[in-house]
Amino acid sequence: MAATEHVVPPSPFSDLVRSETRQQHGTVQSSPFMADLLGGRLGLDAFTRYTGQLWFVYRALEEAVPALRDDPVAGPFLRDELLRLPALERDLAHLLGGAEHLGALAPLPATSAYAARIAGVAREWPGGYVAHHYTRYLGDLSGGQVIRSLAEKTWGLAHKSDGVRFYVFDAIDNPAAFKRTYRALLDALPVDDLEKQRIAAECRRAYALNSTLFDALGREFDCPVAPPQAG
Predict the structure, then answer these.
(1) CA–CA separation, 118 vs 61, rounded Å?
(2) Which of 117, 127, 140, 138 is nearest to 61 (CA)?
(3) What is the mean pLDDT of residues 25-47?
(4) CA 31 – CA 224 distance, rounded (Å)
(5) 7: helix, coil or strand?
(6) Which of 165, 154, 198, 180 is nearest to 58 (CA)?
(7) How far is it, in rounded angstroms, from Cα 220 to Cα 222?
(8) Domains and CATH numbers, the chain
């Protein structure tokens, strides 16, 4: 009698994405700019500059929402609870000293490249848009809360008020449950395995674009460059 073959079920796609981007996630978190920002070694001007760059990234993400609402791949992820542009604009009006200063915001070249990639995939490739949506919004619900807390303590910004509203998701009562639901949507994406690999690769690209932005901010604020790792 032949032994029963043990079939290992495939890993959920959300687990694949997390495993394939783990190293890049760590690299972004430990970038000189973010390390100095989180370590309190940079001033409110650096936080303001960073927040201003985020405005261009989220404008690209959220301007695409109306066209993708009914898309079978991207549509299920487009939850109004996640939208950040109004909160970003309130934060920037506070940080810059008035809404009239919003028109003076200027993207760094790295920011322009990042936003252009998001806009491009939003027009041409819904799966690629999902990759950027995932890396941004789930990051905001997770590590973004560390940045909010630091900003409140270091620069005296009011708790969950103007200046840090970007990180406050008032319409999400249970972030952990929301993230589980989001990852379940990733696992249920109506695409084949090849497309999932393409989406995972775009997640890595999203982290790389974010890393390039942090590098540019680090140069602007004279953050020390981390020594190359051995090996």
Answers:
(1) 6
(2) 117
(3) 91
(4) 10
(5) coil
(6) 165
(7) 6
(8) 33-220 (1.20.910.10)
**pLDDT computed for residue 29 by the predictor:** 78
The residue type found at 5 is E
The pair of structure tokens assigned to 100 is 């009239």
Q: What is the DSSP letter of 117?
A: H
At 36, the amino acid letter reads D
- Residue closest to 113 by CA, chosen among 135, 93, 132: 132
- CA dist., res. 156 & res. 135, Å (int): 28
pLDDT of residue 229: 46
CA-to-CA distance for 231 and 214, rounded, in angstroms? Answer: 24
The distance in angstroms from the start CA to the end CA of the chain is 50
CA atoms of 129 and 37, how far apart (whole Å): 28
Q: CA of 220: how far to CAs of 43, 126, 189, 228, in Å?
A: 13, 34, 40, 20
Q: How far apart are CA 167 and CA 146, in angstroms?
A: 9
Q: What is the mean pLDDT of the chain?
A: 93
In 3-state terms, what secondary structure has residue 137?
helix
